[in-house]
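Bug: token stream looks shifted between consecutive jobs. Job 1:
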Amino acid sequence: SKVLLGENRVRPYLKTKMPQYGAATAELGKLLGVADARTALKFEGGDDTAGRKLMGTQGGAGCITCHRWGDRPSLGIQGPDLSNIAARLQEGWLREYLINPAAYRAGTLMPSFWPAGKSFNPAILGGDTDKQIASIFKFVESANGEPEGFPQNRNGEFEIIPKDRPVVQRAFTDGVGVRAILVGFPTGVHLAYDGDKGGPALAWKGRFFDAYLTWYSRFPIFEKPLGSQVVAWPKPAGRFLGYRLDAKGNPTFLNEQGGVKVEETYEGIENGFRRTVTWAPTPDFAPTITHPAGMVVDMKESSTQGHRVFTYLWK
């Protein structure tokens, strides 16, 4: 009802405002609520401390990379305000949307951090999807602080340096596109993954990424890795489904090729990284697995069907 009165703005970065239609829409808000109703759901088992971490950039889903929080702009592109979702969204709808955003908005830049209902981060609340989503809701409802990751020193350096564990950063990336997922490994060889077609796109050695423009530019800017040596994979031709992180922060990317789900796990090693590709053995199917020119590739022999391990080393 507030939206129909021109109130409760969730996109204050847009100049267009909802017109005020007056008394003619007095009942419309209720009718819309009924039409969009979901099975009644009340979140249980939420932890607002875990919710704060899940919404932030320090081991969480990085919601504030694309969404504003109250009067604080997002770190990157400007998406709807998340500080009031507990007051304006039904719990059932929120759970459905977070698990599969593309089902509600085809082509959305927002990935699923709980693909097929499985959490991207098993280290928080044991990877329990319902508890994690409940914790996000509880943190917002508590109005107790803001998500982790808003910079305190806005004039400082914003180079991301992976130290103790891999770092995952989404960015508009030259040669990859608007859905690039960058993975920085402490071992010094890094990866850009295509979050649209589902496949590795770039690898480079040295410094990882300067996030200043990604976090603060008001316009989409296609950025480049900091490393001076960059190699590229052939363009992938699958469909990206999401990703998850293991306890050490290593990503597993979930894709689909020819109707078969394929998983790729990447781990940093000295002077390179290891890529493990797995899929359910299917008659007449083998995934398309390509490699970049400019790296030494070794495949470990495996007697297990649906399982391949590749090592990539910098020349």
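Job 2, same session, no restart:
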Amino acid sequence: MLSRITSPRAQAPYLRLLARTVLKAKRPLIIGITGSVGKTTTTYTIAAVLSHPRIARLVGTVAHAKENMNDLDGLPLTILRRGWFIRGSSAARLLRLGFQLVRTGQILASRDYPDVLVLEMGTDAPGTLAKTVALARPDIGILTAVGPSHLEKLGTVDAVFREKLTVLRAVPKDGLVIVGDMPEYADRIGPNVSAPVVVAEGQGLELARNIAMIIGRRFGASEEDLRLAVEAAATPPGRLNRLKVGSLSIVDDSYNANPMSMRYGLANFAQEAEPGRRRVAILADMKELGPEEQRYHREVGAHAHQVADVVVGVGELARSYDPDHWFEDAQHCQEGIGRIIAPGDAIFLKGSNSMNLEVVVDKLREGAPPPEEMAL
């Protein structure tokens, strides 16, 4: 009986109740970010810009979701600031749950709570975001983009849009809705939301920065202060991180992937790669795409071959990229990548999080192998 009460699944509604209690008492301004691509980059960029000393004096203190804690389990942990799911023995879990209750009491009694919460709001099934906004109703709602993602449960891209729209609908009249430039959905957003709608231009990191600047202006920040804050903002690990390792130029976008984010990432890679460098795209499987997964991989592969000189596939689905080199998994790629990479290469890495491409990034960060060991 005790193990059932204290199991991780049983903890979730308990932590959500504590999180709702904290939000009701502290009433922070909530910025909710959803979309098929760019949620985490946008979350980190907004938080970094609003936390910049020149902006923070207008905004107050800012906290944001970390480590992709964007679902109904993760959001309460962000709201509770030091919450966690407790594992181990039943007695240990009960003790730690009791500690969390004490911690919540401390939060309620303290004046030290963020003025602004920047929350990433993810979903992989219909109805998830309705529960999310019931927990944390956004004052500013952001939709970065809509594309094929989590189709195994959501079914169609239009269903993805309808699910994401839930976040925007929750924004009150005196709030603000910010959306990426999505003309195909423009006529369906305005009539379905109460708050004013602002369109942010750009893709990827440019879009994240433009959204952050729109929010900064709402707080009264000057253009010069916003420029300085945006320039100082760092991207989260595995999201368009630029690395220099010896003569290699690496773009680590390995944290996650779907067809839309793959295209954005490859386009950004093509635009930024220095002339004269050989372009190598290391692309792993894209997961949760449903029955059309092979088609999506073929389409991304065709685009990758237009952008890159060498395409490396990682994973069974990655065979559909028609890669120049293929590895069964990231571990085999890590072991064999030194035979493919040449001095001066520009390298782009992206794939679903479960493909663990970070081990390949770590191998590349160790430094390029000696020239005689490299295949030109």
